[in-house]
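User: Show me an example of a complex going from sequences to C-alpha cells.

Assistant: Sure. Here are the input components:
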Amino acid sequence: MRKRFGWTRKLQELPKEKHLGGLIPLINMPKNGEGIVRYIWAGRGIINRLLGMGIRPGAKVKVLENSMYGVVILINGTKIGLCPRLASRIYVEQAW
Amino acid sequence: MSRKPSGKCSSNSKFYLICPLRFFRKIFPAKPARKIVIGVIGNPNVGKSTLFNELTGAKQYVANWPGKTVEKKEGIRFWKGCELHFVDLPGTYSLSASSLDELVSREFILNEKPDVIIDIVDASNLERHLYLFLELAEMGARIIIALNKIDIAKAKGIQIDIEKLSKLLGTPVISTIATKGEGISHLCDAIVGVALGTIKSNPVLVKYSKDVEEAIRLLEEKIKQKIEKYPSRWIAIRLLLKDRDVIKLVSKVAPEIIKEAEKLTYRLEKKYGQSIETIIAEQKYRLIEKIVSETVKYVGHPILDITDLIDTVVLNKYLAIPIFISILWAIFLFTFDAATFLVEGIDFLFEILADFARNNIPNKLIASLITDGIIAGLGSVLVFVPNIFFLFLAVSFLEDSGYFARAAFIFDRIMRKVGLHGKSVIPLILGLGCNVPAVMATRGIESEEDRLLTIAVAPLVPCSARFPVFILLAGIFFGKMAAIVMLSMYLLGFALAFLIALIVRKIFYKGIISPFIIEMPPYSKPSLKSISLHMWIRGSHFLKKAGGIIFLMSIVIWFLASMPPGVEFGGPGSYAGIIGRSLEFLFKPLGFDWRIVTALIFGFVAKEVVIDSLGVLLGQNLEEALPQILTPISAYALMVFVLIYTPCIATIATIRSETHSWKWTLFVVAYELILAYLLAFLVVFIGNLIF
Amino acid sequence: MHQKISFGLSITVSIVFGLTYLIIGCLEIILAILGLNIPLIPHDFMGGFVNITTAAIYFFGVKELLNQDIRGIAFPFFGTIFGLGFSGLYLLIMLSSIATKTIIYNERLTTTILLEEIRIEILLLPILAIVLLWFRNHILRKFSY
C-alpha cells in the first residue's frame, strides 16, 4: 500500500541533475542577477506562503542582495527577504 | 473618471445628517436601516488599516475572534440609509489556511457570508494582489476592489485602465488613496450598490487547464449532492489541494469523495511533475498575467529609488549591525533623555500634591493613605508614563517606516543560532518598553513553536519598569560605576533570553526552525496621525492595565504596612512585616532582609512596586536606609533577582491569553523564579569569594 | 558633464563628513575612557560608536563612487539622513534638559549651562540639512524620470 502522502515527499526530494538541469538555487545567484523561478523545493505550508507572495514557477526574479544575512529578491515590484536555507531551495533559470 | 472623488469632509457631513435618522429608527424598529455586512481584506502592507480607519472613522470596536488570538476590528458607517457594518479581516497573502490569520478570514467569508467583500489591492503591484482576489472569487464572494495607493503607482510610472480592469475582473474597481481619504465615498456607493443588487459583481473565475477542470468537474458533481452550504467548485479545488480543514469537513458527509480526490491529485501531480499547489497557483497567475498585460502600462521608472538606496546601506554586510545598534541607541536616548523634562515635571507635580495633601487633611489616617499610599504609589508609576509613551512613539515610527522588516531580516541568522526566529527580534525590542506589548507582538511569528519560545524568553528583557529599580540601586551602591552596572543588567537580560531559548529549543522542540520569509515594504515617511495613534493604543493599554493594578496595590501595601492599628508604619509588627519575616529564611543566603523580601513579594504585581514598597517600608530616604541593610554584593544580587524573577501580573495575564495554556504560563513563571534565585545566589557566592 | 560634477562633489562631501565624524567619534570614545570633560565634545562611548558608524557609511560611499557606480550615492545620502537624525535627537535632548533646569529647578539660563548641554553634532545640523537638500534636488531628481 502506498503511504498517504508518500509520493508528494518523493516528488519534493527530487533535486537530481536530470530534474534541475541548468537551474541554480537562488542563493548562488550573484547580486543584481536576474532569472525565472522554475522549481521550489519546500513543504506545503511554505509553498502556499511563497505562492501567495508571488514566488511561483514562471515568475521573474531579481536578486537585490545576497549576503550572509540571506537573499533579498525583487519579484513583481515587491521586495522579499528569504533566509539562506529557503533561498537554497528555490531554483531559478538564470537570464543574462 | 469624470466624477471627482469627494473628500472626507463631505462624506462626514452626510454621516451627521443621517445620525438623527438612526436615532429615529432606533425608536421605530419596524423600519430598520438595512444592515450590510462588509469584510475588508487585503495583503499585508497594502494600507488596509488606514483605509479601514477612513471608512469607519472613530466608530470602531476591537475584540478577538471567538477562541482565537487574532484581533477582530469592527466599525460602522451610515451611508444612504444603510448601516454599513465593516469587519476588518487579518492581512493575508492567500486563503490556503496555512496560518491562523488565513483560517480566520476564510471561516468568516464562508460561514458569516458577508454581503460584500472589499479586496484592497495595491495599484503598483497588481499581479500579486490579484491572487488573493481570485481565491476570493472561487469562494463565491461578492467583491469590490479598492485599488489603493493609486498615487504611488502613478509616481512610479504605472498606468492602469480601470474600466477595462473592472470589465475583465467582473467586479467594480474603485481607485482610492487611503492616506488622503480619497475615493471613500465612491467605495461606499459601490458597497450599497452591490449589496442592493444595482451594481453587478460577478468575479471572474479561473479557467484551469483541461485536465484540472475535468478533475474539478468530477468532484463537483459528487459534492453538489452532499454539501449545500459551501460553493461546490471551491470545495472541489480545495480537495484537490489536500486542504486539511476541507478534508475534515467532507469526510464527515462523504468519505468516498476524498479517496477520489486523492487519486485525481496524484494523477495531476504525476502528469505535471510538480506539486498540486504549484500547478493550481501557476494557472491562476497565468490568468492574472493576461489581465495585467491588457490593463497596465509601464511608462518607465526611476533609476534611483529611495527605498533601494536606503536598503543598499541598511542591508550592507558590514554596516547592517552597527546601524541597527545605533538605531537602538537612538531609541534609548529618545526614551530616557528626551523625556527628561516631562518625567521631572510629573515628579515635581506629585511632590507638590503630596505636600498639599499632608498639610491640609486633618485626619491623620486618611492623610497617610492619600500621601503614603495613593500619591506615592500612583506617582511612582506615572513618572514612567512619558518614558513609555516616548518609547512607543519611537518604536511606532520605526515600524511604520518599514525598518523593522529589515531588522528582522538581518537578525534572522543570529537569532537562529540561539533557537529563535528572525521575527523574534521585534518583540524583544518592544520588551524594552513593556513586556505586555512584547508578548502580544509575537503574533507576527507564524510558527507556533517559535512563537511560544519567544513568549517564554520575552519577559527576560528588562522592561522600563525594572529600570527605576536598577537606577536606584546602582546609584546608591556603585556611584561612578553605576552606568556600567546598569549596562550589565541589560546585557545579562538579553544573554539569558538567548541562553534559555537555546536550552528550551534543545529540550522541547528538536525540529528545524521554520524558514524565514518577510516582505520588505517600501520605506515611507510615517504620518504623525498614524504613529501617534499607534503610540496611544499601546501606551494607554499599559496605562490602563498597569495603572489600575498599581493603584490598587498601593492601597493594599499601605494597608498591610499600617495595620493592625497602632503599629509602627512599615514596622516588623505590621502585616507586611509578618509576611516578610515568615519568608526571610529563604532569602538569608542571598543577604536579603525581611523588608526586601516583602518588597519583592509586592513586586509580583509590577516591578516598579519594589521601589514603591521599599520606600514605604524603609521610610522616604532610601539613600541612607538601603546601605544599612544591603552590601554592594547583595545589592547587585538584588538587581539580578529583580531582573529575572517572574513577569509582572499584567505580563502573566497576557502570556496566558496569548498561549491559551496555563501550563506554559506556569512554566515561564517557575523557570524564572528558579533562575533568579540561582543566579542571585551565584552572585553572592562569587562576590564573597573575590571581595 | 553633470554626472562628473555630481560624482566629484559627492566624493568630496563623503570624505569631508567621513573624516569629521571619525575624528569626533574617536575623541568621544577617548574622552569616555579617560573620563575627561571638555566643552562641545561630550565623553560618550555610545555616541562615539554612532559617529564612527556614520563615518564608516560615508567611507563605504567613497569606495562605491570611485567605481563610477551612481548607486554609491546611497551611502552619503543615507549617512546624511542618519547624521541628521542623531543631530536632531541631540538637539531635542538639549532642549529638554535646558527646560528641566530652567523651568523645574528655576536655574537661570546662562552660557555655562548652554555650553554644558550643547554638543558638536548639533552644530553640524544646518550643514547636514543643506547637504541633504542638495542630494535630493540635484542628484536624486536628475536620475529619476
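The lines above are the inputs; the final block is the predicted structure for all three components together. Chain A has one domain: 6-95.
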